Structure formats: structure tokens, C-alpha cells
């Protein structure tokens, strides 16, 4: 089978022929139809984060495909089912976090395309209990971005407390941000989209966002103060050197009692908080990491009902390095998806 492989953090991703993997008793093998390129794959391939993946590895955690082999102890999935392979490859299932339904905080979890081989390949193995069924009627090319960008921002919008009468700012209208804006609108919030490219600002308008702010030319915090401040600011912007600035702007946009939700994971990301203002304003700062299997099931259901739009373009798996450069140059409409059908 064809697979993309990260062999070093400084070189290009290679495309290799590998033997077809055999599922263990608890695993399924999935023939990948579509696999979305998340900015996290770029962080992974470059070793951007404090905990680096062990080399070599296959990146990709927005995989969607058809189960073509099942291990002996797999009960809930059958050959022929269409499933999604999210970032949460598996968790222990019995620690307090898992039992309370916070499997994404499990200390012994594995992560697809990071600590276990991922979906930027023709086939991938996955834990039978942690793949999520993709309902009929959801295009695999849409399902792929929903598997990380969708589930992450759906969970984030819940954590942000978006509801009618609230104002929610989304900083960074890329793969994650364009879905965050849609979930905030579905929750009934007034929405503000912030970005630094004309195309992304135009996309926000097309998605029906209430206010659009160009961070290149406008003071984001001042614009929001004039509106009355944000009840929640969702920080999903990522770009070399400017990310911390976008975090500061998101923090500065909050009204009293507001919540800053941190989602983007830039290299060496740091946020310095003024203690006095944070205390007197009753500001909350929350980290948001992906979402649970149930969140992804809800994301797919909303999409099947026609409530969300996935803005994406297809690429060939062989062109993964060119695709990475496109994302870094900010030239992508929202999400690139490798089409393996
Ligand atoms: P992306 O490249 O598709 O989007 C980033 C967007 O930020 C782009 O539209 C870009 O124009 C915009 N941007 C850059 N600088 C800006 C600025 N100063 N102000 C406003 N916007 C700016 O990336 P993505 O795939 O959406 O991922 C975003 C980040 O989220 C990455 O760091 C990724 O690793 C992280 N992520 C986190 C989680 C989680 O669970 N916390 C899950 C998935 C991805
Ligand atoms: Zn991701
Ligand atoms: Zn656990």
C-alpha cells in the first residue's frame, strides 16, 4: 500500500510502498477514502511541540474509509462499514477521566498520526471501539475535515458557552475556524470572524458571520470593545510569529466575565496574562482539546441534516509536501483533503 511517512523533522514527507498491515484482535483495517490535512499534521511533521512523535510515523487524523478487515474481538464494527479515524486513537476506558466521559483527557491515550500511524495512507489500522460510524449521506470528503476540525470546534463552542444573546469571536478562519463560526451560529450566538487574508474574510462573510475584522489593518480588541466585548473568544489562529499577537487580541476582546478558549497550538506558544485585570474582570481561560466520540457522532448528524458546510479542496496523496506549503502560505480555501477513492 501507498503511505506517507515522516522520517525526520527537517526533511520532506516521503511517499512509500508498505506491506498491508494486519489488524490485531481489537483492531479494524480501514481502506481510506479521504484524509484531511490538519495544521496539526504540519506541527507533527516538524516536531513543533514539547512532546514529539517517535520517528518514523504516518501522519493524518482526519481519516474516513471503509472497514475491510476486523480483528477477532471487535464487536461494534463490521466489514463494509464507513468509519472515521479521529485524533483520539484509543484511551484506557477505565481511569476517572474515561469513566466520567472525558476520554480525551486520559493519560494513557494514543493519538492517530502522532503516537500511532495515521490516515495519510491507502490503509490504516484503528481500535474497533474508537472509530466513529459515518452516517449514510455524508460525503467522505466532508466527513474527513469534520473528524478533527469539526469535532474540535463543536466541543470548543460548547465550552465557550455560546447561546442566543452571547457574542462569540473566532480568531483564524481556516480549517477549524470556518466550522467554529458555523457551530457558534447554530448555537444562536452573534459571531465575529477575524483573519489576515482577504479570502478568509470573504469566506466569513459568505458563511453569514455578523462582523468581520481584518487583523492586518484593524485593532481587533478596540473593534470588539466598541461592540460591547466578546462573551467568548476562540483562538484558532496559527502562523509563525503572529500567533501570540492573535491570542493577546482575543484576550483583549473579552467583556467582563468572558472566556478565552485556547485551541491553536503554535510552536512555543506563550500567553502572558495581566493578573490584576484577569481577576477584576473575572476572565476565564480554558484549554480545549478535540472532542469525544459522542461529539463526533453529533457533528456527523448535524452535517447529515444539512446544517453545516465543509469548505474543502481535494489533493492527491503524492502531493502532500506541496499541500503543506499551500497551507503554510495561507492559500487554501479552508481545508485540503487527500482523495484516495
Ligand atoms: P489553518 O492553517 O487551516 O488555519 C489557520 C488560520 O489562522 C488561517 O486562516 C490563517 O489565515 C489565520 N491566521 C493567521 N494569523 C492570524 C492572525 N494574526 N489573526 C487571525 N487569523 C490569523 O489551521 P487549522 O487546521 O485550522 O489549525 C489551527 C490550529 O489549531 C493549529 O495550531 C492546530 O494544530 C490546532 N488544532 C488544535 C486542536 C485542539 O484540539 N486543540 C485540534 C486541531 C487543531
Ligand atoms: Zn487536527
Ligand atoms: Zn483513561
From TrEMBL:
SUPFAM superfamilies: GroES-like, NAD(P)-binding Rossmann-fold domains. Its EC number is 1.1.1.1. It catalyses: a secondary alcohol + NAD(+) = a ketone + NADH + H(+); a primary alcohol + NAD(+) = an aldehyde + NADH + H(+). Residues 11-338 form the Enoyl reductase (ER) domain. One of its GO terms (molecular function) is zinc ion binding. Pfam families: ADH_N (PF08240), ADH_zinc_N (PF00107). CDD domains: CAD3. Its cofactor is Zn(2+). It is an enzyme of class 1 (oxidoreductase). InterPro entries: ADH-like_C, ADH-like_N, ADH_Zn_CS, ER, GroES-like_sf, NAD(P)-bd_dom_sf. Belongs to the zinc-containing alcohol dehydrogenase family. This is Alcohol dehydrogenase. It comes from Kitasatospora sp. CMC57.
Amino acid at each position: 500500500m501507498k503511505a506517507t511517512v515522516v522520517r525526520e523533522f527537517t526533511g520532506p514527507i516521503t511517499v512509500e510502498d508498505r506491506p498491508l498491515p494486519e489488524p490485531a484482535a481489537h483492531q479494524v483495517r480501514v481502506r481510506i477514502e479521504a484524509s484531511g490535512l490538519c495544521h496539526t499534521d504540519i506541527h507533527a511533521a516538524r516536531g513543533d511541540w514539547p512532546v514529539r512523535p517517535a520517528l518514523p510515523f504516518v501522519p493524518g487524523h482526519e481519516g474516513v474509509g471503509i472497514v475491510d478487515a476486523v480483528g477477532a474481538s471487535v464487536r461494534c464494527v463490521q466489514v463494509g462499514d464507513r468509519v472515521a479515524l479521529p485524533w483520539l486513537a484509543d484511551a484506557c476506558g477505565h481511569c476517572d477521566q474515561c469513566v466520567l466521559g472525558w476520554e480525551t483527557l486520559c493519560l494513557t491515550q494514543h493519538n492517530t498520526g502522532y503516537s500511532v500511524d495515521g490516515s495519510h495512507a491507502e490503509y490504516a489500522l484503528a481500535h474497533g471501539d474508537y472509530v466513529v460510524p459515518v452516517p449514510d449521506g455524508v460525503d467522505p470528503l466532508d466527513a474527513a475535515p469534520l473528524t478533527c476540525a469539526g469535532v474540535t470546534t463543536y466541543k470548543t463552542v460548547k465550552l465557550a458557552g455560546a447561546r442566543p444573546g452571547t457574542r462569540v469571536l473566532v480568531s483564524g478562519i481556516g480549517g477549524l475556524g470556518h466550522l467554529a463560526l458555523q457551530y457558534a451560529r447554530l448555537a444562536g450566538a452573534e459571531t465575529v470572524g477575524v483573519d489576515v487574508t482577504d479570502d478568509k474574510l470573504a469566506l466569513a462573510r459568505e458563511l453569514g458571520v455578523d462582523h468581520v475584522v481584518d487583523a492586518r489593518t484593524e485593532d481587533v480588541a478596540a473593534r470588539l470593545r466598541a461592540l460591547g466585548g466578546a462573551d467568548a473568544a476562540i483562538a484558532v489562529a496559527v502562523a509563525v510569529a503572529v500567533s501570540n499577537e492573535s491570542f493577546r487580541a482575543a484576550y483583549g476582546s473579552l467583556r467582563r466575565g468572558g472566556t478565552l478558549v485556547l485551541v491553536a497550538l503554535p510552536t512555543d506558544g506563550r500567553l502572558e496574562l495581566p493578573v490584576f485585570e484577569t481577576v477584576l474582570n473575572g476572565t476565564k481561560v480554558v484549554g480545549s482539546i478535540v472532542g469525544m466520540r459522542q461529539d463526533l457522532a453529533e457533528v456527523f448528524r448535524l452535517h447529515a441534516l444539512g446544517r453545516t458546510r465543509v469548505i474543502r479542496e481535494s489533493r492527491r496523496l503524492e502531493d502532500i509536501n506541496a499541500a503543506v506549503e499551500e497551507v503554510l502560505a495561507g492559500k487554501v480555501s479552508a481545508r485540503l483533503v487527500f482523495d484516495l477513492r
